[in-house]
Amino acid sequence: MSAPATTPAAAEPDFVQLLNDGLLAKFIEAVGEENVLWRRDELVVYECDGYVIAKNSPDVVIFPTTRDQLVATIKICHEAGVPFVPRGAGTSLAGGALSVGGGVMITLTRMKSILEINLRDRYAVVEPGVVNVWLTRALAGSGFHYAPDPSSQGACTLGGNVATNSGGPHTLKYGVTVNHVKGVELVLPDGSTLVTGGVVEDAPGYDLTGLIVGHEGTFGIVSRVIVNLARDPEAGRTFLGVFDSVDAATETVSGIIAAGIVPAALEMLDNLMIRAVEQAFGFGFPTEAGAVLIIEIDGLEAGLERESHAVAEIVRQNGGEVQKSIAWRTRKEPEYVAIWKSRKSAFGAIGRLSPTFCTQDGVVPRTKLPHILRFITATGEKYGLRIANVFHAGDGNIHPILLFDERDPDQVKQVLLASHEILEECVNVGGSVTGEHGIGVEKMEFMPKLFTPEDLSAMETIRNTFNPEGNCSPSKMLPMGGGCIEKKSPGHHASA
Amino acid sequence: MDRLDSELSENDLGDGLKAVGIDRPDSIGALQDAVRARSASGQAMFAQGGRTSLDYGGIPRCAGAIIDTRKLNRVIEYPAADMTITVETGMTLAAIAKVLDAENQRLEIDAPQADRATIGGVYATNSTGPRRYGSGRPRDQIIGVGFVTSDGNVVKGGGRVVKNVAGYDFPKLITGSMGTLGVISHVTVKVRPKPEASALMVFAYDDLNVVASDLAILNTSVTRPVAIELINGPALTRLGLPHSAWAIALIFDDNEASVAWQMQAIRSELAGKVVRDERDQASAPLQGALREFTAERIGPISFVANVPYSFVATLAMSVDSAVWAIQSHAGNGVVRAHALVDDLARLEADVVKLRDLTESVGGNMILSLCPTDRKASLKVWGNPRGDWAWSEKVKAALDPAALMNPGRFVGNI
Ligand SMILES: Cc1cc2nc3c(=O)[nH]c(=O)nc-3n(C[C@H](O)[C@H](O)[C@H](O)COP(=O)(O)OP(=O)(O)OC[C@H]3O[C@@H](n4cnc5c(N)ncnc54)[C@H](O)[C@@H]3O)c2cc1C
What we know:
The structure holds two protein chains of two kinds.
Chain A: H1 15-31, E1 36-37, H2 40-43, E2 60-62, H3 67-80, E3 84-87, E4 104-107, E5 114-118, E6 123-126, H4 132-139, E7 144-145, H5 158-164, H6 171-174, E8 181-187, E9 193-197, H7 208-212, E10 221-228, E11 230-231, E12 235-243, H8 246-258, E13 265-270, H9 271-281, E14 291-299, H10 301-317, E15 321-328, H11 334-344, H12 346-350, E16 356-359, E17 362-363, H13 369-383, E18 386-391, E19 397-398, E20 400-404, H14 409-428, H15 447-450, H16 453-466
Parallel strand pairs in A: 2-4, 3-4
Antiparallel strand pairs in A: 1-2, 5-6, 6-10, 7-11, 8-9, 8-10, 12-14, 12-15, 13-14, 13-18, 16-20, 17-19, 18-20
Helix pairs in contact in A: 1-3, 8-10, 8-13, 13-14
Chain B: E1 12-14, E2 17-18, E3 21-23, H1 28-40, E4 44-48, E5 64-68, E6 75-77, E7 84-88, H2 93-101, E8 105-107, H3 119-125, H4 132-135, H5 138-141, E9 142-148, E10 154-158, H6 170-174, E11 183-193, E12 197-205, H7 208-219, E13 227-232, H8 233-238, E14 246-254, H9 256-269, E15 273-279, H10 280-293, E16 302-306, H11 312-318, E17 324-329, E18 334-339, H12 344-360, E19 364-369, H13 375-378, H14 388-398
Parallel strand pairs in B: 3-5, 4-5
Antiparallel strand pairs in B: 1-2, 6-7, 7-11, 8-11, 9-10, 9-11, 12-14, 12-15, 13-14, 13-17, 16-18, 16-19, 17-18
Helix pairs in contact in B: 7-11
The complex binds flavin-adenine dinucleotide.
Flavin-adenine dinucleotide binds near residues 89, 168 and 217 of chain A.
């Protein structure tokens, strides 16, 4: 393969001038005035996503309400040669929806119909702005569900999930977004449309669906998704395992996986997180515990007893205690809802610990969890930082949350250094710098640590194939072909 | 069965073509050198693993060299407790199974001819067996890949951890790419513990309408089979099963208690008559036979149709059981058929008719076996799809000189 031409960073025209010279009128004609924002004060909301550290306002925000309007909008951008960036709900924690260098932002939240649900053929067709949990709700009681359940599912869109290949607590057993997408419709940066996959499982040709999932908006804009619907489990058990130390909890995680048990979910909270969550929700987490594990197994009732005993035994062997055991038939039982609400809302509780914080997203082989958690503790001590942990332990997907005060520039510096060291250690032990939040603008500097120049060059070649002028989501994901954003402060966001 | 390796001459490229040379690299570095050298002299390259599917796909556009991957047969890393394994491309499924066996684990890929089929070949062809209903397809197991592009570089995507969204998903792109983007050098896949118990049950039917309603019941059954196979009379005979017009075979994998319960529960759900129910080792021969039947060669043509799940019975109804042996992964909407007769005119007419039918419901039909001289007229990959233009662009991006398996894939890629 020849070395790909590097795409120049999208030119930065004098946007206000362009808008006044007719571009704005064209957008308004395409989507209607009510679906265009261009006044400065209205644009502020769109200057960042969940990665609040990097901010830049787009010059105009368009909200297409139909696919035709989306195509028309992109064509206008293409003809004018201006950069544009897709945005869903803006919950990205990596600056994926940041309007680098300004230009047009295309927000998909008004394309929000569930177009079809077909239970017999186990698929649903949705527009990109459909919020993840809407689909869950639409399917409630049907015996089927859409499996990927990011903790942000109450806000994030399926288009955003497809763009970032989102995970969630239950993706340990059931797979991430790419395992549940059967086909997509992508509007390319020139306004043409590519339809991949379909309602059937295999189609001749490259697995472009698989390639497009996780493209982080760098190929075009997803205008429709065909998702797979999975059977609801017949029954389950959700345990709260309580431990004196983080070490004991992570050893338990490794023990469960090594014993050949594939839990539906396996999530960990350390003491700092437990206390914050308990203050916020009063679920009954033991505030003295060093760590707790939420361990969920599911399947057929007939087979669950044995596995329950095995899980409890591994917890005990590691010095832990099973303090709650919720047996459920549907995911609607109050105690079940309460424990998961506590877990999925954990980020909201962090505000009680610290005014500002920075959530990291790294992955290690599951057997390296005890090591990386010790490393995180040591790194916290080294830099004098408090670090809370709440994460998808069963996948080895850590989310250390570094607490700090942004008014103290020293602390800010320490947080950046500590984050960097933790992520580097993930790479050193054979892991990755992102399990689900994406590279966005935040982690481009790590790409050369994970990949060789040959790997990156192939990726850039692919990006240039779909997005030859580089006008769609410029300066994202790949370190070449666009400027890197210099990071000065670590931000306030949290997640998992 | 497929042709034995011994029936092939060492320089067979498939479709009657002969190779201009053979490379047998025994390390990834040697693979890169071989590819670089062939590239430099403008020679096309045809990766071969277990040589189980040499005639699969379009006719090679030109002759070229064979890159035999079978000496790339090492385990690179097997952290059993992480439930992942990284292997070189030329390891056979059987060799991998043996390594995993020691830890009571297995690959979630039940492709046929495991003692010959290499993992690289399985990934290149996206080969699947009955258990795809329960464990997904090869694309659902792969988490990392390396492939050597025509310039001799190893390009990697993904990694060795089960969750990772850094960079484009090359593991998915490579899966099913028919070796047209590069020679796969290694893959990292997820593995799973072996189930404690397994069972196979066969239900017989006279009436396909009853089959259709039982398939609908299976879609919401209280049990969770890992394979739902629909088989017609001639296929049953070849599998050594009692004759009936149709049968549904189910496989259950789980712990003892669950499997025993499912075997009971399913009896009251389905209308079909139970003609076999076997547990564990006793079920192994028939489970194996079902897996191997996917690669059976009976007549000159075999097809694989992909249709919506609800359409399987309708499609089966349109296939003449006197002419085709059918095995359908019914829970996945995959209908495989092997010709029972040699009458090409008749078979061709059926292919055209059945393909129209599958395409009318958003499906497709490929020919997994087809005489070389009929490949063009019968379109082994089916009628062109809208996204093939993009497959061509991706091909041009990663293999600009078109040296990797030229002609084999869709749109003459
Ligand atoms: C509290 C909290 C918890 C979280 N928990 C999880 C979790 O458990 N698992 C997880 O994976 N993530 C999690 N996230 C991250 C985030 O929610 C996901 O990345 C989500 O998929 C983003 O969806 P969105 O609609 O908000 O997309 P945005 O943030 O608006 O955009 C994300 C990226 O997708 C692109 N994009 C958006 N829509 C489209 C489209 N239609 N076509 C093409 N590109 C598009 C954008 O350009 C951007 O690059 C969490 C975030 C928060 C704030």
